[in-house]
Amino acid sequence: MVLVETLERGCSMREIWVDFNSVDAHGLATTLAAFAEDGVMLSIGQQVLAGDDDGHLCEASIVDMGSDGSVTLAVDLGKFRQSQRHVRVAV
Question: Are the beta carbons of 31 and 48 closer than 8 angstroms?
Fold first, then answer.
């Protein structure tokens, strides 16, 4: 029996961290500019790839940026991708 395990964590692909549990009924979530990955410049209207520590990813648009460092995202849950953890067993 051959066991092949593939673990792909989307965390490294994200541009900004977001808590998907905080997405409200309008599809908005607030995070902080400090949670953007190194080198990512943020601006209102920009499309970003938001993700969490479990490797879940989703496309989002920045709709507001507060003077306190808050960033409001319009999260497109229709393009939500769960972490890709695959275990395949070949006999």
Answer: no
